[in-house]
Known about the structure:
Blueprint: H1 5-15, E1 18-21, E2 27-31, H2 36-48, E3 52-56, H3 62-73, E4 77-80, E5 84-88, E6 102-103, H4 108-119, E7 124-128, H5 139-147, E8 151-153, E9 162-165, E10 177-180, H6 185-195, E11 201-206, H7 213-219, E12 225-230, E13 233-239, E14 249-250, H8 255-267, E15 272-279, H9 286-293, E16 297-304, E17 307-313, E18 321-322, H10 334-342, E19 347-350, H11 363-373, E20 377-381, E21 384-388, E22 393-400, H12 405-414, E23 418-425, H13 437-444, E24 447-450
Parallel strand pairs: 2-15, 3-14, 6-7, 10-11, 18-19, 22-23
Antiparallel strand pairs: 1-24, 3-5, 4-5, 7-9, 8-9, 11-13, 12-13, 15-17, 16-17, 19-21, 20-21
Bound molecules: shikimate-3-phosphate.
Amino acid sequence: MYINKSKIILNIKKLDKTYFSKSKNLTGSIIVPGDKSISQRALIIGLISTGKTVIEDILDSEDVYHTLKAIESLGALVNKKKDLIEINGIGVGNLKTPEKPIYMGNSGTGTRLLLGLVAGSNALVTFYGDQSLSNRPMERVISPLEDMGATIICSKDKKLPITIKGARAKGFIMPINFNLLIPSAQVKSAIIFAALSGRGTSSITEYKKTRNYTEAMLKSRGVAIKIKKIKNKSITLIDGTSLVKAKSIKIPGDPSSAAFLAVAAIITKNSSICIENILHDKFRLNIFSVLKKMGAKIKIIKTNEDKCKIIVKSSNLKNIYLSDNKSSALIDEYPILSIAAACARGYSKMEGLGELRFKESNRFDAIIDGLNKSGVEVKSVKDKIIIKGSKKIKGGCIIDANNDHRIAMCFNILSLVSEEPILIKGNKTIMTSYPNFFNSLISLGANSSVYDG
Ligand code: S3P
């Protein structure tokens, strides 16, 4: 299936009533789907490229589907073929005003990056989203984009729906010198996309590293982007340009999706799995280093320039202390790391988790509530979570996913080892990032059932 909404919807009914129960012997090889961050950027960059972009192995999920629909509304000519997507780009700043508001579903990445892109055009666009996306903070992108000359209309709380009129409609976008105080790749990327239409050079100063795919992909398509490292700061300099050269791309598997399967194998008995075709990016593979420190039997084997396979075996985990200096590298992995910590020996402490409150749900509270309900001792102090690991996880509870795919996936995994199954309300949210999540685990040997009612 390639970005086929009707097929996605077909699976949802069953998915919402599926749960896992105690499992062991997870074995076999599995390929995780394409990286979500790179898939979204490939579409958006395809839209503003000059020429044809061919994308292979794109993540076939709802978030990506919404971004795909959005770039079509903004003027891209898209051809969906069996295993690939072709985009005929329209160049920088030439976006079309869509006929109607654009629905972005659950996708924070798609929305924030496109707000930046529209800011540098002369289009007039309204974005709206599902309940979760409508609750996420947009002030962090609105403020710099307004400074660059975009006109933005939204409610006082600066959340979706947002109507944006690109700065080109009244002249040209102003370059910006921006201090990225919240370590966010989405905010950085929104500013980079807007800066492409700027007259002159914009700069973004980062104090904590965040994923760098926007700058790397644009650079390899001929855009003048420079990165300067000064002590503990990294400054990205972006020159305004009219040309992004089209370049085809094959998307490697998502390390964040792989992390769910890895923890499943680690905490279940007699398991040994191989996760293949994963993006080899040190920054995104940090989660595996943390799991190794906890005692997980993990082997990462580089298979080519940008890919690796990861072999994971059942392991006895010990506790971990994580200070906040790695928090931007682990930001999507804290939920599944909390599951690993719940199954480890001793008390694990994770600091600097404040940003988790602004994800698809308030993940900070969701981790604590979910673990509490599952019978795990957990407490929080300010932005820190402390988890007491245990060999026996009670389970036997219902956890509301609250439109958050990672919360749904991580408690489904805890159900593989809990005494009683953990039921998740709202599994369908997993469609946003990993539609094959259940199939992947079932094919590795996890026990699943479907309940009635
Ligand atoms: C992403 C950046 C991160 C991450 C999200 C994807 C991206 O968000 O949590 O899942 O693709 O740029 P923030 O930039 O808000 O930290």
